[in-house]
Here is the input.
Amino acid sequence: MQDLSCVGKCSLTVALPIISAMGVEVSVLPTAVLSCHTAFDDFSVKDLTGEIKPIGDKLKKQGISFDAIYTGYLSSEKQAEEVLGFFDKFKNDDCIVFCDPAMADNGKLYTGFENDFIGEMAKVCAKADIIVPNLTEACFLLGKEYNDGEYKREEIKKMLGQLCEIGCKTAAVTGISYEEGKVGVAVFQSEINDYFEFFTEKIGSVYHGTGDVFSSCCVGAIMNGFSIPKAFEIAVKYTAQCVKASFENKDRRWYGVDFETAIPMLLKMIGKV
Ligand code: PXL
Here is the structure.
């Protein structure tokens, strides 16, 4: 459940190819159609918030169920509210809810969001099993100031505990670094009181949609039966490979990650080829 941005390599145009390539059937619920993602200086938006309930109602009537619901970028408070209604219809013990509260980066909310939206996204996170905010989103969800990425392990551990207190079972914070030249993710599984982290080499630039690549891969790995720690490890490695491919691609686009070329490496990692 996220937007369909015609150009920009984010949200559904990332989630659908990656999860499908991993051998998992994907159903999509586009929450909006944009000409491009919001990092472009001009774009059109057709909001589809009003479609979420009728689509959910019809699917429910067809007896359809899901192994997972994955939410990403949501474009308004009302939309987040409708997503909660969708969870009420479909979430059960056999359905994992994975929420990527894609709303901010580098200390700033994405274009189009006001501070009030954060509280509504926190309600979606509260109902999720797994949440994967980046550092900026984690700070915002906890009502903390974002201070340019200078965080120590103990602070991140404390934040993870506080994120789980919102209501989710597993909280991750992505894009963290405790050491020059390394970037990665820290995760806390509250139900078994387990903390783990994975790091990779930090490569030059930061590309738009990297979070969507990471989350999609993580969902795909979990749906392939990998444990939560293993799924995060796979997602860190695949995302790093995508960023490296983007960096090395002379013809790369400024607006998205070169996730396509690393798909064969991902399939090898999960034993599909
Ligand atoms: O990658 C997150 C994302 C998803 N969808 C849209 C966005 C963004 C980030 O800016 O604008 C429309």
